[in-house]
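Task: fold both queries, return tokens.
Query 1:
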Amino acid sequence: AAARAMLPAESWMQFPMRDVAEQMTSLHSRLFRAIQPRELLHKAFLDAARAPNFAHMTEHFNRWGQWCATEVLRRERAAERAECIVRLIKVAGHVKALYNFYALFAIVSGLSMTPVSRLRRTWEKVPRKYVSRFELYKKTCDMTRNFAAYRDELAAAARHFATVIPFIGVLSKFLFGVEENPTRVGEHGDQFNLTKARLLYKQVQDVQVNQCELRIDDIAELQLLLERIQPMTEDEMRAVSRRLEPPDGAPPVASPPPATAAAA
């Protein structure tokens, strides 16, 4: 707590957005490299006890998305919220260029959360070119046709021999689908399902190929900040969002009174 108090909450915005994206990617790469092959097989990824590193990365994805929404919502003025959104969209562009789809999906998820997406006055202050960029990133993360746009991005990355940090949700979805196929096939169940084995082998191999260490120089102060993100709960986000921009026709919601020191 003491270390966190040394860094003002907005200090990530004082760094170049490329640096923020690189330090995010460095942190996310460590999470990804910790996943063991056994965590990807026999539906182990569904059980945190059997796949602790996979579960840890999944939990962190949710926290990163909530953090993005929190960073927008904790700013009182619409112009400040719009500037935060612009900065996060810039970070999204940089992490996409770094093939960190884990971070890209998290940022898109966070900015698409209802407490943020409903802030009409805020989004009106976001320059059109950044709104357009965000729409493009949303298309990359679109679930349509089994994440076809995202799978196209992965194929393009493979052609460039790029190191990828994948979106963990699609990885688990694919693995689950493969595992649903029988291990034994044939009229009497006496034949090994080679197709299933090949698909699982290729997926594990793809993960391992991308688990190499990235050449990113650490920025200790920025990494310390990003490691200690403290997102609001979803209930807190909803309440803050309604206070900042009340629904049409609703009376304004008063800001909470400043905290006072307890009497000695």
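Query 1 returned. Query 2:
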Amino acid sequence: ANAFETPPRMADLVDTAAGCVGATACTLGGLPFDVAKARLQAGGAGHAYSGLADCLLTTARTEGALALYRGMVPALSSALAENSVGITVQRSLRRALGVDDGGQRPSVGTELGLGAVTGVFTSVAICPFEVLKVRLQLNHDLVDAGPAALLRELRSLVGSEGLSGLYRGIGSLVCRDVPYNTLFYGSYESLCTLFMRLTGVQRKEELATGWVFLSGGLGGCIGWSLVLPFDVVKTRVQSGAESRALPLVRRIVATEGVQGLFRGWTA
């Protein structure tokens, strides 16, 4: 063995830490689009937007630019929880199953299965943060968007619905994250394997950073595009406007068409 090779558990910590740093950067840079996505998905009388740009500009003009950063604390908490739990579960499962031993890359089916299991764990971890984030993002009359507003929303939610209110929409979230993680991790790892073969390297750690970025970007696009209908349902259920997912899906299709299930795709 290489004397300078990183021990497996240390590699887990490094990957998890890197994922958390990446999650923080993505959240800070992408939160305005996340706010816009939630508002486009929720719709509602008096808050109809013609598209992403209109939503961003209207929100900034009528509520101030800081409104585009509503829900930052739960959004950041959700991203950190998703990345730390997701990466830890992935690494642990791969080590337990020995799927990367001997330099052999696992099959596509194995990658998809690992992604699906990861999605269950991440859904449970992030659901409370997602509920609070959505409610803050959809509040058009919020004056104080700091920690005080978050605590008020938390007290209000738990007071009216109990602790179970923090897991409102968990079914839709699982239906989003299990296939998303299946598609993302499956596509990402499979694309990395493809690029390893094309470039002639034996280990993913030897793959050039550009190929890794490309694999992650393509995997994310594939996964997100296919699970967006579940995200639309999740947003409306977690906002408190709806309670049952299946009747909601039927109503969206009947009143808005199939395209209604893909609101917020451009965000």
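Both queries returned. Flag for query 2: The mean pLDDT is 87.
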